[in-house]
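Hey, sorry to bother you again with one of my protein questions. A protein chain has come my way and I'm curious about its shape. It would help a lot if you went through both lines with me. I owe you a coffee for this, so here goes:
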Amino acid sequence: MLEGKSDEEKEKLQNERKENEVKLKDLYLLCHSNLAQVLLKQKNYDNAKEHCEKALEINPNHTKTVWRLAQVYKEINQFDNSLKYLTDAKKTANPSELKGILKEISDCIKLQKEQSERDKKTWTGIFKDGGKGLYEGVEPGKPELWKCPYCGQEMEEIQRARHMIKMHDPSSKKEDKNFPDFPDKINI
């Protein structure tokens, strides 16, 4: 493509190519960042995080993307990560973004304290008295019962496979002509 071109033309084409590559990277950055914002609004946090990370691979200092990633972490209650990214975003923010970021930091610290208080109430004293606090107010579960279609015996669901193999083995069909058909598959 560059054959037969003068040195000036070659240099001009190479400069255009570099400019286009920069524009294309910026376009990818904006697409990933904006898509992350849409996914954040839709409460699709995993995909929003993924697109923020893709955008940050292109430009790790893009303030809006860093801020959006912090919002994702805040929404999934990972407040330490959120504060880390908000602090990073604050360093590169322009004045119009700074107010929103500072408010977000304040909200995140408040939510982190509330979560800490809830955790403290939940886990305080849980291992006292041999861990009885773990099961306080919890009724033990009752096992599901299953009735064998061949012999009518009732048993816990967990014993079903053993019963079918031990009591209704297909090899015993040859000996007992009145034995019902053995199923090909046993749903466990």
